[in-house]
Amino acid sequence: MAAEKLDLLQGTLDLMVLQTLATMGPMHGYGIARRIEQVSADALILNQGTIYAALVRLQQGKWIDAEWSASDNNRKAKYYSLTASGKRRLVTETKNWERMADVVRKILTSLPGEEAP
Amino acid sequence: MIAALFRLVARSRALITKRALDEDLNEELAHHLELLTEDNLKAGMAPEEARRQACIAMGGLEQARELHREARGFVWLEQIGKDIAFATRSLCRARGFTLTVLTMLVLGIGISTFVFNLTAWILIFDQPYPHPDQLWLIGFKDKHSPSNPFRSTIQFQAYQEQTTVFSEYAAVTRDVANVVVDGEPVVVNLLGASIDCFHTLGIMPVLGRGFRPEEYRPGADNVVVISDLFWRKYFHAAPDVLGRQVLVNQQTCTVIGVLKLGQPVPQSFDGEVYRPFIPVVDPLSPFMPAVFVIGRLAPTVSPEQARAALAAVNLPTLPPWATAFLAEQEPILIRPTDIARPETYWVMAIAGILLYSIACLNAMNLMLVRLVGRRQELSIRLALGGTRWQIVRLLTIESLGLALVASVFVIAAAHWLFPPLFALITGSEVARFGSALTVSTLVCIAILTLIASVTVALVPVWRLMKSEITPGLKDGSAAAGEGRGVARLRTSLVIFQAALAVVLLAGTGLMVRSFERLHRADLGFNPAGKVKVTISLPRGYDLGPEARLQLFERLQLRLAKIPGVRAVSFGQDTLLEGGFWGTAQLLMADGTYRSVAGNFVTADYWKTAGLTLKKGQWFSSKRGEYGVVINETFAKARFGDEDPIGKSFKLLVSGDFMHQVVGVVGDVKETVRSTPGMRIYSAEWVYPLNISTLLLRLDHDPGKEFAGLVRHAIYALDPKLIVSQVVTINEVVGNGMWAEKYAFRILKVLTIVAFALAVAGLFAVIVYTVESRMKEFGVRLALGAQPANLHRLVMKRGLTTATVGIAIGIAGALGLTRFMQSLLFETSPYDPLVYAAVAIILLAAAVAACWLPARRAARVDITRLLRAE
Fold first, then answer.
1. For B853-868, what is the mean pLDDT?
2. Proportion of chain A in helix, strand, coil states, percent, rounded to 5
3. DSSP per position, B808-828
4. How confident is the model at residue B574 (pLDDT cuts 50, 70, 90)?
5. Range B190-213 average pLDDT
6. Is A29 exposed, middle or buried (0-12, 13-18, 19+ CB in 10 A)?
7. Alpha-carbon distance B371 to B376, whole Å?
8. Burial class (CB in 10 A: 0-12, 13-18, 19+), B136
9. Per DSSP, what are the bridge partners of residue A27?
10. C-beta separation of B306 from B165 below 8 A
11. DSSP readout, B282-320?
């Protein structure tokens, strides 16, 4: 039986978008959504429409920039790129995420095995 | 933190650039969808299916847009914007409702703001002087009057020299003077200001400067500071007024300063022209001139200590009569505001609040009517998933919007309409030049607007919360009439309004009654047709006693020639008005002194004034016959049951002559409120020094042009004479009642408006009730009721409502009108006649308000009603 798809954890989409832009360079909205789906190997339920809310949020925080330019197939597309403060934000947010994941893992592993579901 | 700030800015900007952002997003989403569809096609899907799958993966375009909007802007703000637009549209559609509510609110907020402007300076704010709590007006009490707000120069000098209880004084003398500006003579109030006067009261000229210490020397005092009004009127607000010359009582003076517009000064300290006051005491009349003195208490001195110190000063040696006269006086300290009669202002303020409440209740009632009328619309909104909160928000926005629009009108009125109204009501020309739009006025308008909008929305929202509205869909068609709860609520609002109107009506009624009593008050003579003309001689125009008598004899002959004048007498300034300056000292046969009001008048005076001789005869005009006439109060107090005729005493001002009582005359009241004091009447030649006034008798009170005739005649006789006043005695009597008249004028207007609003409220409710019960009436008619029955039914409902309101109102009025007691003349605040009249007036109005709707109910046309179904 295939593993059930995971629901997106609150607040993680912004981090994933930042990381995607950091590794792939400037991309348009569809590209970012595709990339996240591919990397997660389709294990995530990503409502692609939500990506735009995340993008505008990040843009307003000046962590990413947006610019209209021609895409590969010569169509107009809005390209997003990481700003300097976005890079810093990615570093701190990644650290925060790792610490949080660590804490959660510790708490889960410290519990007696038979009580885990 | 900075990022949060960026976001706030960006989100706010997003509100404005909304359309551009939406287009941007749409393009982006379209691009996204296209790419997704292409990928799906590449994966081998059919075109239709590819697009469908793409849409699913996007999670719906509309949702994506909504999420985007939520993230980028303030959705609730946009929502409120939509609500405002909706409220505006629906209010514009209900034009009748909107205009009525606006009128109510503008009247309510506007009139109460106006009243606030009139009263706040007395009731809320302290006096606008530096450290007003240290300021005390120095006056005195004696057996004639408990409070006289002035002192004589000789006492003021003694206070300054012998006590340290006051750190500084503001003192003024008042005079009427001829001032010539550019060859144009005008009669003005000339004030002599003491050296610290401006400093003590915090007065600072806006143009030029105040007086310098070196200008308080004879010869150096030819400088004047003028009021703003004087500057505007006679210098046409010329900016180069400083250094200009004016003639003040024949002396050339230089203008050195202009006071600011509406410069607040205590009562008696207001004048058009100020000059340095250099105290000079004339041994012949040691009490002249009178000074109004405000002292600033020195630190750590209590008012009681100060009073004691003032009482203990030694005055220079004076003639025995003057010493005896002063011995009867006791200095007192008066709060400067107390002369302003605060109770007058309280009555106005309460009336303003009542009117405001009536207006708000009316608006609230109309809002409720509208809510009930919109039951179906609101029910549909609820059924379609609108939340109750959204409807509450809509109602709040509507009422807030209405109140705000009303406040804009009020602000405009405060700027353009209030100043002329102030001028009209207070009779002060200064008010005309200002704007009533001060910070405190704006705050007042803001508060009143807020309260109004909250109250107006309150009851409808509360009803809504109690869910009276939801069954709207059901009962909209079949049931007759509005919901019972709403009907009861609306009726109680009307009752409340009627009650408030009754309170106001009762207050005004009591004042009407009081004024009626005033006009009928027995003054001891008939004031009608009597005119007083006061002449002052300019400084430097010194006349000896004989010359003065001759001058007035000439004036007498001249004025007697004016058409309509039946008789002319003359005497000192106290004709038919008592007071300080008429006071004379008597040395009685038993060696005691006695002070009485003395009138030195021509022998025909009693006929001109219309006094009644009770005993004996009037004194003759023959020189050397020292006959005097005394009044009844004096006769009773001094001689009891003995016959006063033939008794004698010395009159200290006239020298060493025995005066014999030749007659007793009826008492004359000085003002309507006073009780008559002891008086003597003696011939004008006995003491001509103070003679300044002519009394004219006509058949009835003359018109306004009469003063001009008098001034003209006097000018023709001697152009140097100053005619300081031409007034009817009726006006003089009325002047004593300025506070009452002032309050009455305001109260009258407020009551008329409040009454109209309350009746309109009743009318609206009855009309609406009839309207909503039409079907019921139709059914009743069909079942055999007579039209007359329906008529009676409606009338009964309206009159019951009014009666309950009247009853509650009268109870409230009985409690509130006690505060008016001091403004009423010989009228009890519980005067049954007034309350009966108020009840009848309101009932009559209620009958009138119900008549039309009742007739409409009686004429209900069943066939038409059925067709409408």
1. 77
2. 55, 15, 25
3. HHHHHHHHHGGGGGGG-SS--
4. low
5. 90
6. buried
7. 10
8. buried
9. A80
10. yes
11. -TTSTTPSEEEEEEEEPTT--HHHHHHHHHTPPPPP--H
Residues of chain B neighbouring A57 (CB-CB closer than 8 A): 7, 71-72
B660-713 pLDDT, tens digit per residue, is 999 999 988 766 666 777 888 989 888 887 788 899 999 888 888 898 889 888
Q: pTM for the whole thing?
A: 0.71
CB contacts of A75 in chain B (<8 Å) are 31, 34
Interface of A with B in 40-79 (CB under 8 A): 47-50, 52-54, 56-57, 59-63, 71, 75-78
Distance of alpha carbon B509 from alpha carbon B757, whole angstroms: 18
Q: What's the number of CA atoms in the CB half-sphere (13 Å) around residue B833?
A: 8
Residue A84 falls inside a structural domain: yes
Structure tokens at B278: 């250099």
Residue found under tokens 């109030």: B189
* Residue range B235-256, pLDDT digits in tens: 888 888 999 999 887 788 999 9
3-state secondary structure of B224: strand
In the three-class reduction of DSSP (H, G, I as helix; E, B as strand; rest coil), residue B475 is classed as helix
Task: Record the tokens describing residue B476, joined without a space.
Answer: 């909209």
CA distance B155 to B716: 40
- Nearest CB partner across the interface for A30, out of B6, B35, B70: B35
**CA distances (Å), origin B547, targets B178, B464, B541, B552, B569:** 21, 87, 11, 9, 17
In this structure, chain B runs to a length of 869
**Residue of B31, B62, B70 for testing the chain A interface, max A β-carbons within 10 Å:** B31
Alpha helices of B59-178 — where are they, by DSSP H?
A: 61-72, 75-93, 95-123, 153-162
Selected for mutation to probe chain B from A18, A52, A68 (highest B CB count within 10 Å) is: A52
Conformational region of residue B826, where left means phi above 0, alpha means psi within -120 to 50, and beta covers everything else:
left
Residue type for position B534: T
Domain assignment present for A1: no
Q: Which residues are CB-neighbours of B674 under 8 A, at least 6 positions away? A: B145, B578
A52 in a structural domain: yes
Average pLDDT on B761-786 reads 82
The total number of structural domains that make up chain A: 1
d(CA B327, CA B155): 12
- Portion 15-74 of B in contact with A at CB < 8 A: 24-25, 27-29, 31-32, 34-36, 39, 57-61, 63-64, 67-68, 70-72
Q: How far apart are CA B600 and CA B574, in angstroms?
A: 9
- The answer to whether the Cα torsion of B535, B536, B540, B542 is positive or negative is positive
For the stretch B526-566, pLDDT in tens is 888 999 998 877 766 778 888 999 999 999 999 999 999 99
Identify which has the larger pLDDT, B493 or B429: B493
Examine the pLDDT at B125 and tell me if it is beyond 70.
no
> Do A57 and B71 lie within an 8 Å CB cutoff?
yes
User: Is ipTM beyond 0.95?
Assistant: no
Taking the CA of residue A102 and the nearest CA in chain B, the distance in Å comes to: 26
**Cβ neighbours for B818, distance < 8 A, ≥ 6 positions apart:** B829
Radius of gyration of the CA atoms of chain B, in A = 38
Q: How confident is the model at residue B476 (pLDDT cuts 50, 70, 90)?
A: very low
Domain contains A117: no
Query: What is the phi/psi pair of residue A108, to 5°?
Result: -70, -40
Q: Is B292 left (phi over 0), alpha (psi -120 to 50) or beta?
A: beta
Instruction: Please report, for the domain that includes residue A74, its CATH number.
Output: 1.10.10.10
pLDDT tops 70 at residue B126: no
